[in-house]
Amino acid sequence: MTETKADVTLGSLPRVNLLPPEIAERRRFRRIQVGLGGAVIGAVGIVALLYVGAVSSVSEAQTELDSANARHATLQAETAKYKDVTAVYARAAAAQAMLTQAMGEEVRYSQFLNDLSLTVPENVWVKSVTFAQAAGAAAPTAGGLATPGIGSVTFTGVGFSHDDVAVWLESLATQKGYANPYFTSSTEALLGSRKTVDFTSTATLTPAAYSGRYTKPIGG
């Protein structure tokens, strides 16, 4: 069987490249150009995305900086309101020191008299009380005893007996602010037909008599 022309396929024919080499080279160069162009476009896109991200970060940072500056300005304004606080505290401390110096040795004699009225023994009547306070220095102690004092207090009164006077002195010794009570005189007398004893007694006024109202810390 003979092979006819129709039986010959295109695949069996040899391929012959009739294009000049220059054209083929140009095609390859164009493909390279297209590839490089795509790479450049991709790089530009990446750079653009990075730039947008950087701009966004800068914008956020600027916003935070503006907010921080605003808070700082607000705090500065608040601080300015209290710039004189230190000076006010200094003046208050100086005034407190002056008050302590002037009134630190205050004795509330009205309170002493009130307490005395509640503790006088039943058979004793106090006719007079005289306080003598030494300013700024310890006063001589009553009776020459060793208990330090800030002054002295003298009482005159009447009792039914010398024993009543002794009870009075014992009562006085238990009261705050008094020390070393003793009688300077004790004389029998008559009150109508009733025998009595007129007495004078003295006691040392101790530092416990200070009120302390002006020496305690503020809020203490």
Principal-axes shape call: rod-shaped
The CA-CA distance between the termini, in Å, is 133 Å
**Mind telling me the CATH class of the largest domain?**
Alpha Beta
Percentage beta strand: 15-25%
**Number of domain units:** 2
- Helix coverage percent of residues? 40-55%
How many strands appear in the DSSP assignment?
4
Q: By helix and strand content, what is the structural category?
A: alpha+beta
CATH-defined architecture of the largest domain: 2-Layer Sandwich
Radius of gyration: 56 Å
Present the secondary structure layout.
Blueprint: H1 21-81, H2 85-103, H3 109-119, E1 124-133, E2 151-159, H4 162-173, E3 178-191, E4 194-205
Antiparallel strand pairs: 1-2, 2-4, 3-4
Describe the structure.
This protein is an alpha+beta fold and 220 residues long. It has two domains: 18-83; 109-209, Alpha-Beta Plaits. Helices cover 47% and strands 20% of the residues. The chain contains four helices and four strands. The chain has helices at 21-81, 85-103, 109-119, 162-173; strands at residues 124-133, 151-159, 178-191, 194-205. A four-stranded antiparallel sheet has the order 1-2-4-3, covered by helices on one side. It is rod-shaped and about 170 Å long. The N and C termini lie far apart (133 Å). Mean pLDDT is 77; it is low at 1-6 and 139-145.
Give a quick precis of the structure:
The chain is of the alpha+beta class.
Q: Which features would summarize this protein structure in a list?
A:
single chain, alpha+beta, 2 domains, four-stranded antiparallel β-sheet
